[in-house]
Amino acid sequence: MRHTPNIFPALGSAQVLTRFFLRLIVFGIFAALSSTGFAKTLESLLTFGAIYCLAAAALRREQPFGRELTHFDEAAAYTVIACLAAWSS
Fold it and tell me: pLDDT tens string for the chain (89 positions)?
């Protein structure tokens, strides 16, 4: 039987944190350039980011809240920050 390579290798926590902070910076830049208000735009972008992360986690069949950081953890962080942005506006 042939061994098939793992299409989606496990990501390290450092890579997930780097991806999270880079996306957060990009979301912040787009929210700052928006004409509808920083908090409202940031909340929307973070919500879409959380939905994207949940879909990516489902496609990759990641285990939620395991030893390594995953898209599920990233989606939870985006959701918390989106709730804080909604609360502040």
Answer: 566 565 556 667 888 899 999 999 999 999 999 998 999 999 999 999 999 999 999 999 988 878 888 899 999 999 999 999 999 87
Torsion angle, CA of 35/82/21/69, rounded to 10 degrees?
-160
Alpha helices in 1-89 (DSSP H): 13-32, 38-60, 71-88
User: What amino acid occupies position 75?
Assistant: A
Q: Whole-model pTM?
A: 0.83
Tell me the C-alpha distance between 10 and 65, whole Å: 14
Domain count, the chain: 1
Whether residue 62 lies inside any domain: the answer is yes
Angle at 65 between CA 64 and CA 68, to 5 degrees: 105
Look up the domain containing 62 and give its range: 34-88
